[in-house]
Amino acid sequence: MTTIPATIICGFLGAGKSTLVNRLLREPAGERLGILVNDFGAINIDKDLIKVESNGQVELTNGCVCCSIQDDLASGLLMLARGAPAFTRVVLECSGVSHPAGVLGVFDQPAVSALFHVDGLFCLIDCASFDDLDFQSGELAIDQAAYADVVLLNKADLAGAATVARVARTLHGAQPFMRQVTAAHADVPLDVLFGPRPTAAERPMPADRASADHGDLYSSFACAWDRPLAVSDFARLSVALPPGILRAKGILNVADPASGESRRGVFHLVGKRSSLTLQDDPAPPLSQLVMIGRKGAIDEQDLARALACCPGVRTVTPHRHAHDHQPI
What's the rounded Cα separation, in Å, for the pair 179 and 160? Predict the structure, then answer.
């Protein structure tokens, strides 16, 4: 059974979570979103979008549904799962004083895990006010970031480069392998939040779709193999990917370790979280992998060495955002 991906957004009070959710409401990227929030008060829903409002739930004309949850996250998730038509993704905005460990624990409950999987945990940090937090609040903000797959160093326009760099160093002290993205107004490409769009058998995989309006900040890399990939080789590749890679998705032709027969493999990576799932659907003739990262944060030689773990790699096209990215 295919489970619904859940995008979790956390961060201390005032970090910009509601700003990010508001943007997703305006631009759902073609997805039917179920959005769970602790408080509707901070969510600025355009009245022209509202279709139905009742019982703590707002249905929007763009296909989104917002639910207010106060106590029982599991009940809110199960309520969304019963909705029709089905959602393609759930976005959860956590309370600013909640700890991600408790939220993640809800997704381990059998009734919830049968329907949902955590696709990515994102933490926003208010760089402009981080130094003003008291000790307890600062420790919680650091813990929230340490649990995240990707940390958004938000309000960089207000904080300035030197302050952002200092906050980044502080957070790295708690989690050295933390993936960080600098942002203003919680503005990051949807491909970083949701991953590249469906690919291979469904439609060609567009590396340069990773938000053309962010082309001066992010780079996308696309590559392919025309032979079945060994699971062990691809496992080495995924571990060797440079830390600057924020998101990756692959639709792969994988050689089954047991039978040697070709199977369809789906690879997802968000920050430090990754998975390769073998499916019963027909294997695609071409294995494709798209990766997205912050421009300048990816060593292309390290990326090339990682991709070489699977022999026969080639670039699909010399994908470029700002006409400055060369093929691998």
Answer: 20
CATH class of 4-188: alpha beta
What gap in Å lies between CA 255 and CA 264, rounded to an integer? 9
DSSP 23-79: HHHH--TT--EEEEES-GGG----TTTEEEEETTEEEETTS-EEEE-SS-HHHHHHH
pLDDT, position 97: 87
Residue 124 pLDDT grade (very low, low, confident, very high; cuts 50, 70, 90)? very high
Give the whole-angstrom CA distance, residue 185 versus residue 127: 12
Q: Where are the alpha helices (DSSP H) in the chain?
A: 17-26, 73-81, 100-106, 110-113, 135-147, 156-159, 161-174, 190-194, 231-240, 300-307
What DSSP element (H or E) covers 245? strand 245-255
Q: Using a pLDDT cut of 70, give the percent of the chain over it.
A: 80
pLDDT at 46: 63
Whether pLDDT at 215 is above 80: no
Q: Domain ranges in the chain?
A: 4-188, 195-315
Give the pLDDT confidence of 71-81 residue by residue, as tens digits.
688 888 888 88
Fold exhibited by the domain 195-315: Hypothetical Protein Yjia; Chain: A;domain 2 (3.30.1220)
CA gap 66, 34 in Å, rounded: 6
The span from the CA of 250 to the CA of 136, in Å, is: 41
- Whose tokens are 């990682």? That residue is 306
Torsion, CA 236, CA 237, CA 242, CA 247, rounded to 10: -120
Contacts of 135 (CB under 8 A, 6+ apart): none
Whether the domain at 4-188 and the domain at 195-315 fall into the same CATH topology:
no
Dig out the tokens for 244 from the structure. Answer: 């600057």
